[in-house]
Amino acid sequence: MSQAERPGIAPVALDGHGADGGVEAIAEGARIAAEAGVPVRVYGPSGTPTSPGVELVECDEWIANEEEPVVAVRAKSEASVVRAAADVAAGRASALVSAGSTGATMTAALFALKRIQGVHRPALAAQVPVPGGDGASVLFLDSGANSDVRPQHLVQFAFLGSSFSEAVLGVQRPRVALLSVGEEPKKGSAAVIEAHEALAEAEGLDFIGNVEGRDLLTGAADVVVTDGFTGNVTLKTLEGTARAVADAVRSASRSGPRAAAGGLLLRRALGGLRRELDPNEVGGAILLGLRGIAVVAHGSSSPTGIANAVLLADRAGRERAVDRTADLLSRSGATREALRESE
Amino acid sequence: MSQAERPGIAPVALDGHGADGGVEAIAEGARIAAEAGVPVRVYGPSGTPTSPGVELVECDEWIANEEEPVVAVRAKSEASVVRAAADVAAGRASALVSAGSTGATMTAALFALKRIQGVHRPALAAQVPVPGGDGASVLFLDSGANSDVRPQHLVQFAFLGSSFSEAVLGVQRPRVALLSVGEEPKKGSAAVIEAHEALAEAEGLDFIGNVEGRDLLTGAADVVVTDGFTGNVTLKTLEGTARAVADAVRSASRSGPRAAAGGLLLRRALGGLRRELDPNEVGGAILLGLRGIAVVAHGSSSPTGIANAVLLADRAGRERAVDRTADLLSRSGATREALRESE
């Protein structure tokens, strides 16, 4: 569907700063997304290239990785990610996408969009591709927003993930699992054991029990829940392994004439695997639990990665991910305690 | 050095039960180790094959994976791993090696060998190979003994790992890092942030700061410290990725005539990578912090894996790993608080 066929739709707000590939990668990603039918508004430096369906909001201030997110977001009201988030909150854009500082993106989104009523802590959900799974992926959360969690946070993450998986990723009755050190309910940290008990009794979601680190890539579950510390370490371990695979392929194809001959095949077959193992290729991590949509694209994203992040954000908006998440949460009772606390 | 050249040396006590490959894998692993000069005493069922340098202690009782470790170790004084641990404690064997239940091995070792004075919690240290690192490995702990830790436990793990790395693995002044979600000292869980502060001031070890999941395979540090929950999930994620690599290679080489032609090369180059990525190939995880040596070989270990575990245990004994660890710990002051607590 071209952009012309969707005249009234609000654009996705795309931060023009902070991508490793510079504003060129952003502009090219926006162009690809617009060509696929999603209008994009880029908050970038003057001179950022535009294309049909892509408009530019000139924005020279931005927040760098090194800056303390809360301090920077409060101080820099004209920073690109802050302005983009404000436009989403005001309804002038449908969703926020940034490949800049993860902390700044999460903070700007949280301040501007606010939490869904009853949500303790928003969580960052990454799509981890299942190798050989024909495009299937596991929704893995929290992948880095909350380093310390209580059991009830893990329970909410399960509901946030389940509703997003169903509403946006189109998984019917997603199988939800808790990441732990063994399948037995009593294995794991104290917080995980308590969350397991609560999830085993929870209604409105299909809890299949614990999975282990080795099950992440097998597609044993549609949604895998963990704390943001373990989640971040796990994803980066996967990423490091993907890189080790790529390096090994490169050096193998240089190891001799016979290897060089097989090198092309080697590179092609395993380049695909490397992409499949690299969670950053999918499009981005989604911040769940807010009253609006925010997607954190990886800073090293290619233009295709940026475009995928925009398409994901757009789809979340069209599928009413926020309303449907709020509905499921309130029906489940998983927010009851938080609501009591806030009374 | 053949066994005949080391007549007075105490054998390594090897649990004959619990390996996935059965007693045959154990017997073959023992034979390989003995041939390399390390005498082995196998605690296995009657009929277990022996070979020069390998003796059999007949032992038909054992502890299965499903059994609750503490209950089983207390109840089954004749179980193979319990008898093997008792012989190490009594000085009749130099070290304990088991490919059976990890929990039972840790429990039997803890009960029989006791903790080094001042050690809060023994930790399980795995050697993670560095791909392309010419046999280099990272000592990674805790890989699963303690799911919930306090900051002072992480600090002790750093000292336990550093002293083992230096004494047994021969690393001069090992670089010790803390696993976290970013390099900055203030990133991570509350426990990690507090441990970072203490380690930055600690004497007697070379603390290089935080590393991330993606740095695990690069050899950026010699010792990487984390809690047993994150450690277990991380190792199993690596293992799952290694398996995904192997599966992809297998299916790639079946994908067509051209791929089939390159298949042998593909399998050979990447079989090596798979082994390099699989922590189980190295020989086993060592339980650190006890007054004796215990090595947990992976249940799925090949005979070579079993033999490597025996050689590692033997080397730890010969290098006086326990005494040297105790020395470093007491000089470092990292045990002071624990000693105060126990007074």
Query: Which fold does the CATH topology of the largest domain in chain A refer to?
Result: Isopropylmalate Dehydrogenase
| Largest two-chain interface | A-B, 56 and 56 residues
Order of helices and strands of chain A: EHEEHHEHEEHEHEEHHEEHHH
As residue ranges, the low-confidence spans of chain A are: 1-7
What is the name of the CATH architecture of the largest domain in chain A? Answer: 3-Layer(aba) Sandwich
Tell me the name of the CATH homologous superfamily of the largest domain in chain A. Answer: Isopropylmalate Dehydrogenase
Number of domains of chain A: 2
Report on this model:
The structure is a homodimer. The first copy, chain A, is of the alpha/beta class. Chain A folds into 2 domains: about 150 residues, Isopropylmalate Dehydrogenase, CATH 3.40.718; about 160 residues, Isopropylmalate Dehydrogenase (3-Layer(aba) Sandwich). Helices cover about 45% and strands about 15% of the residues of chain A. The first copy, chain A, has 11 helices and 11 strands. In chain A, strands 3-2-1-4-11-10-5-6-9-7-8 form an 11-stranded mixed sheet, sandwiched between helices. In chain A, strand 10 and strand 11 form a beta hairpin. The first copy, chain A, is globular and about 55 Å long. The relative contact order of chain A is 0.17.
